[in-house]
Amino acid sequence: MIPSILPTYNRAPLSFVRGEGSWLIAEGGGRYLDLGAGIAVNALGHANPDLVAALTEQAGKLWHVSNLYQIPEQQRLADLLVTHTFADTVFFTNSGTEAAELAIKMARKYWSEKGAGDRIEILTFEGAFHGRSTGAIAAAGSEKMVKGYGPLMPGFRQLPWGDMAALKAAISDATAAVMVEPIQGEGGIRPLSDEDLRTIRALCDETGALLILDEVQCGVARTGRLFAHEWADVTPDIMMVAKGIGGGFPLGAVLATEMAAAGMVAGTHGSTYGGNPLACAVGTKVMEIVTDPAFLAEVNRKASLLRQKLEGLVATHPGIFEGVRGQGLMLGLKCRIAPADLVRAGYGEHVLTVPAADDTLRLLPPLTITDDEIAEAVRRLDAAAATLQPATADSTA
Length: 397
Ligand SMILES: *Cc1c(COP(=O)(O)O)cnc(C)c1O
Known about the structure:
The protein is α/β, with parallel strands linked by helices. The chain folds into 2 domains: 49-290, 3-Layer(aba) Sandwich (Aspartate Aminotransferase, domain 2); 293-387, Aspartate Aminotransferase, domain 1 (Alpha-Beta Complex). It has helices spanning 37-40, 49-59, 72-84, 96-113, 134-140, 143-146, 164-170, 194-207, 277-290, 293-316, 339-348, 371-386, 393-396; strands at 16-20, 23-26, 31-34, 89-93, 121-125, 156-159, 175-180, 183-184, 190-191, 210-214, 238-241, 252-256, 321-327, 330-335, 351-352, 354-356, 360-363. Helix 2 packs antiparallel against helix 9 and helix 3 runs parallel beside helix 9 (277-290). The longest helix is centred in the C-terminal third of the chain and has 24 residues, at 293-316. Pyridoxal-5'-phosphate (PLP) binds at residues 95-97, 100, 129-131, 181, 185-186, 214, 216-217, 242-243.
């Protein structure tokens, strides 16, 4: 008999009743160090007092009004995002997937407005993840995500990850846009080099194609800059944001330049919940905290500490781990064994991690994690690794 919850997840036999900063407290009282943070969502930790205050204060006043009216909380958050980024304008969504949908629609509208409605091809990369809507799965195109859901939305072509020669060959003045994550999350914490990101920007400039960056996972201070593309000193035309921006409250956004958004006039797009006062009150508090240069400096300092300790962990367990990659507090441990085994061993040591593709274990702790918690996290990962059978020379050859 089908369970009362649609069984699309293989869930761990764990459930939590409370969260405190970097910790989740299970039924029965067990405390788990959370290096997954709801998959980069609880960026400021669980039950962050500033976010609880912002949420409850707004909850006592007004939760929802439709976008038929002015929403001052939404205006404040939009202004903050415009002030701190490349963007001239913002549309709020409830999730990353909805942000992907609008990014795709916006790119198509842009060309349609220019009288080039057949210029629809969006180039994406293998291993990408842009969400689970029919458009977003067509964009990423992985067999696992699209199987059985055809016919797919046309207009996407996946190129080998980070292959600049393939991009040069594929892009032309018929390309509508290039859509890419500066660091692939689900794909296994695979960063584009700064140089590659600059190459992509240059190829878009040469052909007129729009650059859409998906910063749903790597954005909002996760890498130690407000947005990951800042490291490469380039800016996109359109950017998708979600996960960390709500600190745990469902919130997403599409940021765009005035040029890219030119066709998006009244009536061309909408959302019932997008940009509601409750979500925006929380998002505003998140932005106020993460845009503080001192906060970003701390993320970078703690990221170096964690990375250095993880390099030590890799050296201690060469049959389990191959290396560390990523940036800031978006780190991946490339594994020689199945990362799911490490995730499971972590449950025994009360440390929570997230598996990803490309044999990678993801570490996405709250950005507020302390030095002591970082040391404790690596001790627990070490203990978890010690319970597992290292890969033999044969199986890794
Ligand atoms: C999680 C994620 C999405 C989808 O976001 P949802 O909020 O789950 O819809 C899109 N892109 C990237 C890079 C993500 O990590």
